[in-house]
Specification:
The chain has 303 residues and is an alpha/beta fold. Helix content is 48%, strand content 11%.
Length: 303
């Protein structure tokens, strides 16, 4: 396929680099993935953008002007999205989550390299930071392929860990994860967590969906996040390491010393982080930009 193709691309700049190493001698470019803004923006944020940036539906690049969105309006829109998520969680599971508690979202295909259990490397530390910094709750979602034993084992590990921390940290695993539930989740959580084993994440898209709703990411620098990450502006990085324990230490350090204090003690600065997430990542990592790049770079023959 490589030999017979006029144009070859990865789905992120990092994917391009990895692919060039895998297939030396081939000219490989990159068109980074994007998500459909009209599908993944929550009703509350759609209404906010319609009021302040009415051109955004026609041209997603106008989300760049999210810089001028009032912080209080961002907070109100997010509160609406969070209440919708909490209501759906209660409807599906009977669990009544706290809409004021800091909420982490993790939802994607359950497979080994996604490492859904990295957050639970040290359950006691997770409980300690919740006691010290403020209430913490975590929502999981995602399915494993029926033949993926490693993925199914990860889901079992999350349930086991949830039981270990339940006296302090509330953990919910949502079954029958689909697009409708995904839309509520990426908009309603406060932080989107991604912990792939680098360099196995070609792109990833769930963090892009969250960004359209002002939700920052905490992620390993792999896939699209290499391009979308601006530390303390669009979110935070988990320092990559061959040692999973060192990566977990980085994750806990960012949560404990930076993210939770920012959320609970500096709400205006948290709203600024949400605003910059929309302006920088929401305006770029969308399907309009992606399709335009494919048209110009892959299909439009020059000369």
């Amino acid at each position: 396929a490589l030999a017979c193709s006029r144009y070859v691309n990865g789905v992120s700049k990092r994917h391009e680099e990895v692919s060039r190493d895998m297939f030396p001698g081939h000219d490989i470019a990159a068109v980074t993935n994007g998500v459909h803004a009209g599908t993944w923006t929550s009703p509350a944020f759609m209404a906010l953008y319609d009021r302040h940036i009415p051109e955004w539906r026609r041209d997603n690049l106008y989300l760049r002007y999210a810089w001028r969105l009032p912080r209080v309006d961002i907070a109100i829109a997010h509160h609406e999205a969070k209440r919708a998520l909490v209501a759906e969680v209660e409807r599906r599971t009977g669990e009544r989550l706290d809409p004021t508690a800091f909420t982490i979202g993790f939802a994607r295909r359950a497979t080994a390299y996604k490492r859904a259990d990295l957050l639970f490397t040290d359950p006691y530390r997770l409980k300690r930071m919740a006691r010290r910094s403020g209430p913490l709750q975590i929502i999981y979602g995602g399915k494993a392929h029926p033949h993926d034993e490693g993925g199914k084992a990860l889901i079992r590990r999350v349930f086991q860990a949830a039981d270990e921390v339940k006296d302090v940290v509330r953990v919910v695993y949502l079954e029958d994860y689909d697009m409708a539930l995904g839309g509520l989740l990426v908009a309603g959580v406060d932080l989107w967590l991604n912990t792939p084993l680098a360099p196995h994440e070609a792109s990833g898209t769930s963090g892009m969906k969250a960004a359209l709703n002002g939700v920052p990411s905490l992620s390993v620098l792999d896939g699209w996040w290499v391009e979308g990450h601006v530390e303390n502006v669009t979110g935070w990085s988990i320092e990559g390491s061959p040692d999973a324990a060192a990566e977990a230490e980085s994750l806990y350090g960012k949560l404990e010393r930076v993210i939770l204090p920012l959320y609970y003690d500096q709400p205006d600065r948290w709203a600024e982080t949400m605003r910059s997430t929309i302006a920088i990542n929401g305006s770029f990592f969308n399907a309009q930009r992606m399709v335009s790049q494919y048209v110009h770079n892959a299909y439009q023959v020059v000369g």
